């Protein structure tokens, strides 16, 4: 019956219980059975439970469950309202998404950063979860509710994100780097607030910067050397002026499979609810994505990733 039902419409379960009950072999067996029958079982959130204890088993926030349900339903039809890819097209896949903007500390109260809010990365995470994937988000300074059914690892700096992404990507089928990562950081961090007058440390002149590790290039290099074979690697390039020739060269230099080139500024990109982009592939192809919601943009890119995963 469940198989027939999911063939006609998606079924989504959001179980909530104490950690010990969720981890019990009988519960895990039943969850696995539901998934093999084509149902989407949302992983519980981690946090305060009904008693004094905390752990995995908490019901995800209702707004995030609603957003996930919307994403599930939108994955059933394309932009024209026609039938699209089948439900759970990424079931059994593990994906890692970076989100937000890194911060590079100058002193205990100041940092170099950017305007990224993490909305596009969280849209990718939500869309992948709606397709049945196991999703991990490495989030840099994101002030958004955790997407339902998604594991979130919080980081601050580019070096933090570099370590977390390389670790999580070891067993991932697909990696999407949406985060705005600082290219440089202060060469020295003051342990005290830097002041313009009075006692304490001061900046004697221009702030010296040093280069941060290139996460996307390092992910590609590690994949080439150690695998996993077949992993799909997606990068993002936020530009104020679109130069697709330069972007294609950047894709080749970084070693990724797809590069999502999106314009920022003028109401686009950081902080906005929608986005537009051109997706370049390593073979020289281009897929324009007209302006639409960030969730809808993520869905188009996941279609391209799923096609490469097979």
Topology:
Layout: H1 2-8, E1 12-13, H2 19-23, H3 25-36, E2 40-41, E3 45-48, E4 54-58, H4 62-74, E5 94-100, E6 104-107, E7 110-112, H5 119-130, E8 134-140, E9 150-155, H6 158-168, E10 174-177, E11 184-186, E12 209-211, H7 215-226, E13 232-239, H8 244-254, E14 258-263, E15 274-281, E16 286-293, H9 294-309
Parallel strand pairs: 1-2, 5-8, 5-10, 8-9, 10-13, 13-14
Antiparallel strand pairs: 3-4, 6-7, 11-12, 14-15, 15-16
Helix pairs in contact: 4-5, 5-9, 6-7
Point out poorly predicted stretches: 1-7, 78-85
Q: How much β-strand is present in the residues?
A: 25-35%
Number of helices: 9
Any idea of the CATH class of the largest domain? Alpha Beta
Termini separation (Å)?
28 Å
> Which strand order do you get reading across the main beta sheet?
9-8-5-10-13-14-15-16
Please write the string of helix (H) and strand (E) elements: HEHHEEEHEEEHEEHEEEHEHEEEH
For CATH, the homologous superfamily of the largest domain is named as CoaB-like
Give the overall average pLDDT: 89
Q: Which structural category fits the helices and strands?
A: alpha/beta
- Binned, the helix content reads 25-40%
Main beta sheet: strand number and arrangement?
A: 8 strands, mixed
CATH topology tier name of the largest domain: Rossmann fold
How big is the Rg?
21 Å
């Amino acid at each position: 019956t469940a198989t027939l039902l999911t063939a006609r419409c998606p079924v989504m379960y959001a179980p909530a219980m104490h950690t010990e009950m969720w981890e019990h072999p009988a519960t895990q067996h039943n969850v696995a059975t539901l998934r093999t029958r084509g149902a989407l079982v949302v992983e519980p959130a981690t946090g305060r439970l009904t008693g004094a204890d905390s752990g995995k088993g908490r019901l995800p926030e209702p707004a995030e469950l609603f957003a996930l349900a919307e994403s599930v339903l939108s994955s059933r039809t394309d932009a024209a309202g026609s039938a699209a890819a089948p439900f759970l097209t990424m079931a059994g896949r593990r994906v890692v998404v970076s989100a937000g903007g890194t911060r590079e500390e100058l002193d205990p109260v100041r940092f170099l950063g950017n305007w990224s809010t993490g909305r596009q990365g969280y849209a990718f995470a939500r869309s992948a979860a709606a397709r049945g994937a196991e999703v991990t988000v490495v989030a840099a300074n994101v002030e958004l509710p955790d997407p339902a059914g998604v594991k979130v690892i919080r980081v601050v700096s580019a070096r933090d994100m570099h370590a977390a992404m390389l670790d999580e990507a070891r067993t991932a089928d697909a990696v999407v780097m949406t985060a705005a990562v600082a290219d440089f950081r202060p060469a020295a961090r003051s342990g005290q607030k830097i002041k313009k007058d009075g006692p304490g440390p001061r900046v004697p002149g221009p702030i010296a910067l040093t280069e941060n590790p290139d996460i996307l290039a390092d992910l590609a290099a590690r994949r080439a050397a150690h695998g996993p074979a077949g992993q799909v690697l997606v990068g993002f390039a936020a530009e104020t002026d679109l130069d697709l020739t330069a972007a294609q060269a950047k894709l080749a230099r970084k070693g990724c499979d797809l590069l999502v080139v999106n314009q920022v500024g003028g109401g686009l990109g950081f902080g906005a609810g929608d986005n537009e982009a051109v997706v370049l592939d390593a073979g020289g192809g281009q897929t324009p994505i007209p302006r639409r919601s960030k969730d809808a943009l993520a869905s188009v890119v996941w279609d391209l990733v799923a096609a490469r995963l097979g």
